[in-house]
Write a structure and sequence with these properties.
mainly beta, elongated, 2 domains, 3-stranded antiparallel beta sheet
């Protein structure tokens, strides 16, 4: 079963770039329409709409009124690694922390890296 990526009360973009708001999610609904909401027009009007649990307006094809799931939050972690002839230790959150735990006589490098990732990345399954 597809996990719902949408939440009641939140606004999302449609595939065509319009805004849409979710009013209700009923995964037990016997029809393919599990999400009830409205597509918001620029002039303030709104048009009632319903979508499948995956956000599709039509279950068999892409359409401009499809709800688009939110973009995952992108983050950057700034870390240091101690490099030895046969191993890498870390990550450490500061150069000072990396220096405090290093074995100076065998350390061959202490490198800084910025690791970019999305919240939830690699957690599928």
């Amino acid at each position: 079963m597809t996990k719902c990526k949408f939440e009641v009360g939140k606004e999302y973009s449609t595939r065509s770039g319009k805004k849409a708001k979710v009013f209700e999610i009923n995964e037990k609904n016997f029809t393919s329409s599990k999400i009830l909401g409205a597509i918001l027009e620029e002039d303030g009007r709104s048009e009632m709409a319903s979508w499948g649990i995956d956000g599709r307006f039509f279950s068999n094809r892409e359409f401009g009124s499809d709800l688009m799931p939110p973009e995952p939050e992108k983050r950057v972690m700034k870390v240091w690694f101690n490099i030895y002839p046969d191993a890498i230790y870390g990550p450490y959150t500061s150069k000072r922390e990396a220096d405090c735990v290093s074995t100076k006589h065998a350390l061959i490098a202490c490198v800084y890296r910025e690791i970019k990732y999305y919240v939830g990345e690699g957690l599928d399954g």
